Amino acid sequence: MPLKFPPLFLLTANFHKDPQELYRLQEEIRDVHGALVFKKEEAKIFLVKEITAKKRTALELRKLGIWTREITYPDGRGHDEAELESQKSPRKRRKLSSSNDGWEIINNSPGSSTESDDDLVIEEFKSTPAPKNHGLSSRANDEPSTPKAATPRAAGSPKLITVLKISWYLDSVKSGELLPYDDYLVYEGELLPGSKNQPSREITLPSRGNDILARAKEDTLPSSGKRSVGKYNSSRTSKSHYSQSSGQRPELMHETTEEHEGTDMPPLPDYLHSKYCCHRRTPLHCQNEDFIAQLRIIQKARDIEHAKGNEFNGKTYNGAIAAIASYPHTLMSRREVLRLPKCGNKIVGLWQEWHETGHIKEVDDLLADPRMQALNIFYDIYDVGEKRAKEFYNRGWTELNDAIKNWDKLTRNQQIGVKYFDEFREKIPRVEVEHAANVILDHVNRIRDGFQMVICGGYRRGKPESGDIDVVLSHPDEEVTDQFLETLLNSLEEDPDHPEIPFYITHRLTVSTRNSDRGQEAVSWKGLRKVGSGFDTLDHAFVVWQDFEWATKAEDLSNDPDFRNPNTHRRVDIIIAPWKTAGCAVIGWSGGTMFERDLRSYCKEQLGLKFDSSGVRRQDDGSWVDLEAGGGDLLVKEKRVFAGLKLEWREPTERCTD
Prior knowledge:
By secondary structure, the chain is an alpha+beta fold. The chain has 3 domains: 8-191, no CATH class; 209-368, Orthogonal Bundle (DNA polymerase, domain 1); 428-654, Beta Polymerase, domain 2. Helices cover 34% and strands 11% of the residues. It has helices spanning 19-31, 54-63, 81-87, 166-175, 212-219, 289-305, 314-326, 334-338, 345-357, 361-368, 370-379, 386-394, 400-405, 412-419, 421-425, 430-447, 457-460, 478-481, 485-493, 514-517, 553-559, 582-588, 593-607, 634-644, and strands at 8-10, 45-48, 68-70, 103-106, 121-124, 160-165, 185-191, 428-429, 452-455, 465-466, 469-474, 505-512, 539-545, 570-576, 609-612, 615-618. The protein has a 5-stranded mixed β-sheet. Strands 9-11-14-13-12 form a 5-stranded mixed β-sheet, with helices on both faces. Strands 4-5 form a two-stranded antiparallel ribbon. Helix 16 (430-447) crosses helix 19. The chain is globular, with a radius of gyration of 28 Å. Residues 75-158, 195-263 and 529-535 have low confidence and may be disordered.
């Protein structure tokens, strides 16, 4: 029976010489023991190969965005420092001048694995200032699962970072039991309350003007330099591969023999020979998430700038991100990146910079740029796109308070977006998604029994938390779905017993019944002679949702009749699809952005068809193509569409391209 290891994170240092060993170990730890994690926040143990120097280990952790301080004991040293020092030969050191601050690495070219720890000289001038955000969640070690014999020094502490030799794993497998750490411990560090080089999430910035700097430091990666970008605009149409943040030609990239040896790379999966995401398996988590997190920041900035004439716009980064997310191995070389679809020299250059330094200057500059901070705030307001965000900024607005001060210049939906700005940005746990969806289905079937529903969006792709709630509803009797939406909304908006109290829906954002208004008949579309005539016109309602029940409701209202509902306002999208094309609706609302975009491109370029959530039509004459005929439920109909489009079935959890 396989051993039950705690979550293990495999550091890639020193696998440069034999990447196949890394791939083999990753597959073994993942497939045999189910213990491999690729998100540092989930790791309880970090495994490292051929590194015993503590400062080198600390540097490898820092490349991941994990800042630590070595744990010391009463004698002022780490528990094994004396033993390690006795084994080390004298090392040549270079004195650092007082102008240096932080780490200095001498004779340690990135990716090199031929140097011994004695040849690696890492100096620290005085003490490195602790960064202001940490990159490792305190939840990483909440539930230690390692035997006590293997945790002699409180390894379950939420702030303890433990790095062991890879031989601990190998010897434990060989012996059939988890061995104590003592003989394998390389480094034990206390997590510092910050992380200058942490791989950033998508840009999340403050909502209140006076808190911009403080919240930005909490939610984003601080800049490593003082120079900010702020010059991304649609007039910059250069096709060069130069960095747009610096405007300078990048340094030449050093290539080794390994770069030209295809045998050093794992075989490329067949599905990655296709440029279409709908052909690929793209799971929720992958081995290159930290690098992807950096690319997402650049991609979002490009989307906000909407640089259509720029070769490196948001769509370019979306395509590269989707390809990397589908790659089932840790990227180890430039050539390995370059062979992926939509990953050209620009992406390769960014990967090499991140691989060698642990961060990307362009990302640092973007996150430090006040203009981009302001644009990002406005872009995150509901119903504000890139054009309106730049319009707000050009008026001199720099924070959310400026939008509040100019309330009359906002549309109704934008006012709602500002009012619930913080609440809309809070992620929704799966249990809450399920509760809201069940409420909707219950009301639907009270009105007319027999409806079927699929919860779509990020929930269906397996995300632990969602940005909003998407549900697709349909009924085998198409007369039932005709003009049904308004009846449903009325049911969810008003409690018949207490009409004076707000019910589940507090605001309607967008409501469309165009599908019912034309009798649910197929859209009148004339093929190539009239493109874009409102083909995707399902009945839908985008609403603001607030659960009107809470645990202490009776007591709270008894004490104060004006007590305000404490539940968070959520965004909910309700889609009503006619039965004949409901499978297309489920597909259209389930996949990530690039999956859906490439599905449309594939249908157009390879099949001569036009696809969206309303159905499938021929490009030449606009005639409807029925791919869903036959019995079965919504999921059966969804699979029929895949088969009709000559696509291999992909579970929703394999369509995670966003």
